[in-house]
Write a structure and sequence with these properties.
Helix content: 10-25%
CATH superfamily of one domain: Glycosidases
Structural class: alpha+beta
Number of helices: 11
Radius of gyration: 26 Å
Distance between the termini: 64 Å
Mean pLDDT: 93
CATH class of one domain: Alpha Beta
Low-confidence stretches: 66-73
Number of strands: 39
CATH architecture of one domain: Alpha-Beta Barrel
Shape: globular
């Protein structure tokens, strides 16, 4: 265990050796690199961190030592008060204040939809990650009234990682280099994912998919709760277990012939994802796990009920992971596309090791496939396995909807780029208006997934009335048109650590109005969404100091200014930054559908613009070996010329062959239809 050992938080990837020099100035000794300098006064033990220009980022108080051998908690203080009295801290998860963008503390706990991480980025210009000698006892921090930050470290030693980072962009790259970059997810995971607890039988699954296709409602996956593998949930199973409970099986009511069923659904463009619990319910499995020492001790912070707390498997044990892999192998072999990992908060690292097992299993079954999972909490580094996270079991009310974007934006700043929520709420039933507005906001979440409790109405659009189905259908169509854009952003994330969903503070750090803004945000750098998050359809929209276009419109608005907008039930307030080229795809019923329409590239003038548009097979790891196609678009605002250059060898069926370039200017919309050749340009003069 860390320090000086292997932490599950860290990627372990060998980084290029950083060149540094040792400096001496009297009692002060330090190391100087190309990105900053760390100095220690040998007399006072005072530390200080400096950026590449020599500016002080944080003066550090000495690290006190425990006064007694039995004391295993030490505290030190970062005190940048001379630089910025009240620096804001970002990137430490979504807890303890759900929905807040910046945080004042991290309790470093994993809960039902809440994540608190032993890290942060300060707008004083640095980031930090602290790894203790026991990953399951992470450090905590708290902002002090004098502007400092106080860390508490359980244990006797720790590794502190310091990162001079002037911007959130630099922080996210540095953090990803430490904890691991998220791989490009399978393309289907960016489509609409229909989840529920209560799928009834094989016919019900098929009829539901038929209704989606008949009503022209796009969907890429059905996600199943308990019922896919067991007829009765294990919540009432006591500590000794139940000899009849099936931990690793198919429920024959839903999947009497799983291999052929999943193949048939796949031919219709549907993927299957099943829930997994971190515990055993079968008495023989529990007896074996206890005999081998695989059961985790009860965690008082675990939010789950007492019946299941005593049955969780310790996946940090390699033998336990191997057992899990052996028993889950048949599900991947049958064609299941991913796992939904739930209720794994028994230890801070449970989701980490659980996903390590899942990724390893898929490598055995299909070494070239992309692993995908959805998790109710996360610790640093979980993203590198191909994992996504969602905000847990929530209620269907306007307050919860309004709080959700801030939680997902906090995930983005914490190194988790793929996040989701239970659209429509897990418990009870939303009103049609609430479900519509939630679904519209979800178009601009990294993962678009609805879910519902066994006793709630499924979040199938047609169950909420004709108006709701029409509005939700319009929102889903827009989501699928934006997938080419989102998928390209996923490649950018894989290279840089920059998330798809970004708070405005990333692009406008000098604007105090957006420092904690969560009710509007950016997808990429240019697409600003301000969805309706309250009842009635009206809201204020703040546009920062740029020129902005309404999405798809030719008129523009100069910021900064605040607008008051009233949106119809099927409308979403969306704006695009001047100097943006935005790829828009055709409306599809699933991401595997090969359309014949051209790629539309919307050009919002006002300044030069570039964008790297990426295409590949959407499912294998071949992209890591360069098997993808990059079309680098460039807009010259002075000459009104769009040019592009295509590199890469990939030419699959899902590649666009033609381009419809649309210039949206004050004079109106002008379009050019051209062939996407290796290197060419088109003029709008």
């Amino acid at each position: 265990m860390p320090p000086h050992g292997k932490s599950i938080f860290l990627s372990g990837t060998v980084q290029p050796e950083t060149r540094f020099t040792v400096t001496h100035n009297g009692s002060i000794t330090g190391i100087k690199t190309g990105f900053g300098e760390l100095l220690v006064d040998e007399k006072t033990q005072q530390w200080s961190l400096h950026d590449r220009s020599g500016a002080t980022l944080a003066p550090w108080s000495p690290l006190p030592k425990p006064s007694l051998p039995s004391v295993h908690s030490v505290v030190f203080k970062i005190s940048p008060s001379s630089l910025k009295l009240h620096p804001r801290c970002y990137g430490s998860g979504n807890a303890p204040v759900l929905g807040a963008l910046s945080q004042t503390e991290a309790n470093s706990r994993a809960g039902n939809g809440s994540t608190s991480l032993p890290q942060y980025w300060s707008d004083a210009g640095y980031g930090t990650l602290l790894v203790t000698d026991n990953d399951n006892k992470p450090a905590t921090w708290k902002a002090k009234s004098d502007g400092g930050v106080e860390w508490t470290i359980p244990g006797e030693s720790a590794d502190l990682y310091l990162m001079p980072a002037a911007t959130l962009y630099e922080w996210l790259r540095n953090d990803s280099e430490l904890t691991g970059f998220a791989p490009v997810p399978p393309r289907w995971s960016l489509g609409y994912l229909q989840s529920r607890w209560g799928w009834k039988d094989k016919a019900y699954i098929e009829e539901t998919l038929a209704r989606f296709r008949k009503d022209r409602l796009p969907v890429d996956a059905f996600i199943f709760d308990f019922e896919w593998y067991t007829k009765t949930p294990d919540y009432k199973v006591k500590a000794p277990g139940d000899p009849q409970f099936a931990d690793f099986d198919w429920n024959p009511t839903l999947f009497p012939d799983p291999v052929d069923q999943i193949k048939a659904l796949a031919r219709q463009g549907l993927h299957i994802v099943g829930i997994r619990k971190p515990r055993a319910g079968n008495s023989e499995n529990l007896k074996m796990a206890r005999r081998l020492g695989w059961i985790l001790p009860t965690n008082p912070d675990d939010p789950n009920n007492p019946n299941i707390r005593t049955r969780n498997i310790d996946y940090s044990n390699p033998a336990a992971r191997a057992w899990w892999e052996q028993n889950n192998r048949k599900f991947f072999e049958a064609g299941m596309s991913g796992f939904w990992n739930d209720e794994g908060e028994t230890s801070y690292t449970e989701y980490s090791y659980w996903n390590l097992a899942g990724e390893d299993l898929l490598k055995q079954v299909d070494p070239n496939a992309r692993f995908w999972s959805l998790n109710r909490s996360f610790a640093p580094g979980l993203q590198r396995f191909g994992a996504a996270a969602w905000t847990g079991d929530i209620h269907p009310d306007w307050e919860t909807l309004a709080r959700t974007p801030g939680q997902l934006l906090s995930y983005s700043l914490s190194g988790m780029p793929y996040s989701a929520c239970d659209i429509g709420g897990f418990f009870d039933n939303p009103t049609p208006e609430l479900l519509i507005r939630w679904m519209q906001a979800g178009v601009f979440f990294p993962i678009l997934r609805s879910h519902s409790h066994l006793d709630s109405t499924p979040r199938f659009p047609w169950l909420y009335g004709q108006d709701a189905e029409a509005a939700i259908g319009k929102a889903l169509n827009l989501r699928y048109q934006l997938i080419p854009y989102y998928y390209s952003l996923a490649f950018e994330n894989d290279l840089t650590g920059v998330p798809l969903m970004r708070p405005l503070v990333m692009e406008f750090p000098g604007d105090d109005k957006v420092a904690d803004m969560t009710d509007e945000w950016l997808m990429g750098k240019g697409l600003l969404v301000a969805p309706v998050l309250s009842q009635g359809g009206s809201r204020d929209i703040y546009l920062p100091n740029e020129r902005w276009f309404r999405f798809g419109a030719t008129s523009s608005i100069q910021g900064p200014q605040t607008l008051h907008a009233i949106s119809k039930l099927d409308e979403i307030p969306i704006y695009v930054r001047a100097g943006t080229v935005l790829p828009i795809g055709p409306v599809l019923q699933h991401t595997g559908e090969a359309g014949s329409e051209p790629l539309e590239l919307q050009i919002y003038p006002g300044r030069n613009a570039t964008f790297d548009f990426i295409e590949d097979d959407g499912q294998t790891l071949n992209y890591r070996n360069g098997d993808f196609c990059r079309t680098s678009f460039s807009w010259n605002d002075q000459t009104k010329t769009l040019s592009w250059k295509i590199t890469g060898s990939y030419k699959g069926k899902n590649c666009f062959r033609t381009l419809k370039a649309v210039l949206l200017s004050q004079q109106g919309a002008t379009s050019r239809n051209v062939s996407l050749e290796h290197e060419s340009s088109v003029s709008f003069q």
